[in-house]
Amino acid sequence: MKVEPDQKVRINVKVNGVLHEAEVEPRKLLVDFLRDDLGLTGTKVGCDTTTCGACTILLDGRSVKSCTLLAVQAHGREITTIEGLSSDSKLSPVQEAFKDNFALQCGFCTAGMIVQATFLLSQKKDMTEEEIRDSIHGNICRCTGYQNIVNAIMDASRRMKA
Amino acid sequence: MVRIPFKRLFLIIKMYPPQVGYFRPESLGEALEFLEREEAKVLAGGQSLIPMLKLRVLRPKYLVDIGGLKELSYIKEGDTISIGATTRHFELASRRIRGLEILQEAASKVGDVQVRNVGTIGGSVCNADPAADYPAVLTALDATMKVRSKKGTREVKAHDFFKGPFSVDLNPGEVLEEIRIPRLEGYRQTYRKVVRRAGDFALAGLALAIKLDSGVVKDVRIAFTGVSQGPHRAKEAEKVLRDSKLTKDVIKRASEASTSGANPPSDSRGSSWYRLEVMKRLLQTSLEVMANES
Q1: A118: Cα within 13 Å, side-chain hemisphere
Q2: Residue B12 CB neighbour total at 10 angstroms
Q3: Between B20, B63, B112, which is nearest A137 by CB?
Q4: How far is CA B227 from CA A36, B3, B223, in A?
Q5: For position B37, what pLDDT does the model report?
Q6: Domains of chain B
Q7: In this predicted model, which residue has the larger pLDDT, B200 or B131?
Q8: Locate the 2Fe-2S ferredoxin-type domain: which residues (chain A) (predicted)?
Q9: Where are chain A's structural domains?
Q10: Closest chain A residue to B44 measured between Cα atoms?
Q11: Measured between beta carbons, which residues in chain B are less than 8 angstroms from residue A116?
Q12: What is the mean pLDDT of residues A138-145?
């Protein structure tokens, strides 16, 4: 696959179970493809510098920062965004836990936090508070509401085991 | 990840990579062929490259995306551990290799979970941020870089490979294919770093491997990150320790000697003087732990 700088590239990406075919510039960032082209604005742009984690999505099941990937890098791969975690307006266990634990203040980091927590719990069901805090260090809550976020993730882990 | 000077942060409203072409090869051979002809930059995970494109520090004509090449993603164990360049941080962080425990420890401290899910060891090594984690480990362990181009293969020692900040011994058309690290069995190994805030690059980081025989240091390797233009091998400290017992006095002298030749930068996160103090304390406390455990 070769694309000239002034050309567009055709990509196939499965997003939340739906296959999308699109033409994008090679320099198009994945987060902008999701938000502007597909209208999935649940994923947020915070710092735009790989620091804050508001743009976290799942790429082939692993959490990544979509402001630091090109859309073309996702060609042929599967993406899950915050919109894809719930089905038929039924919240996922992590979303339920965030709601019940008041794990948000302004809400801007929440989508990224929930996606990251979903990934962490897919890797390891039993995490200590310390492990949770360490593994969400790529997600910044500028309201500093970490206590309830950590509580929510521990609660989600209990719910998923039950 | 790339550090952005504090002042520039306010000048940037929306950052976007410049117009760039894209090539996705089916094999390493195809990538080398392309790199020989075109003015291009290799894209592996992109966790340093994409931020740099956004800052317009780099403006290549093409990106050659080797991130999906399976032939470059592997960990092979023998007397030497061979690691393919596009092996991702999380794969190294989840694998304990006997005689190379330090690599798992270092890999699990790179960036954050999301960065480790995409970023590759080869990408981080070729980016050669002076505060990156792997360069110190590879320098301490005398690793060898296997570099490929269309013309052939050559091998470069870590010590020669890291030439300065963001500068490595790679010529146009060349790609880092593999990293070879000798297995250090019977060595106690540790990688520790000090950061001011979660996610920051290291103020200073220490890669330490030490072999003790009834309390006497038979061999020791010490390298720091973040305190010089490139990884800093603390040869003077190694000299102090070799063939000595890890007494309080020896540890103190080694820690003092470790800063010889280091030239840490001063910036918003710490002054040069402070970084030197951090270095000494890192080495001192690490050696004390090892002395107590032996």
Answers
A1: 28
A2: 13
A3: B112
A4: 42, 15, 10
A5: 95
A6: 12-65 (3.30.43.10), 70-182 (3.30.465.10), 188-293 (3.30.390.50)
A7: B131
A8: 9-85
A9: 9-84, 93-161
A10: A73
A11: 113-114
A12: 96
Indicate the pairing of strand B175-182 with strand B21-23: unpaired
**B22 vs A: CB within 8 A:** yes
The answer for B 154-213 residues in CB contact with A (under 8 A) is 198-199
- According to CATH, the topology of domain A93-161 is DNA polymerase; domain 1 (1.10.150)
A114 CA: distance to closest CA in chain B (Å) = 13
Its CATH architecture, for the domain A9-84, is Roll (3.10)
How much is the pLDDT for B5? 57
Chain B interface test: which of A64, A72, A119, A133 (most B C-beta within 10 Å): A64
The ipTM of this complex is 0.97
**Chain A: residue nearest B1 by CA?**
A50
Looking at the complex, report in whole angstroms how far the Cα of residue A51 sits from the nearest Cα belonging to chain B: 7
Question: DSSP string spanning A86-153?
Answer: -BTTBPPHHHHHHHHTT--SS-TTHHHHHHHHHHHHHH-S---HHHHHHHTTTS--TT--HHHHHHHH
Q: What is the mean pLDDT of residues B110-115?
A: 97
Give me the pLDDT at residue A122, please. 97
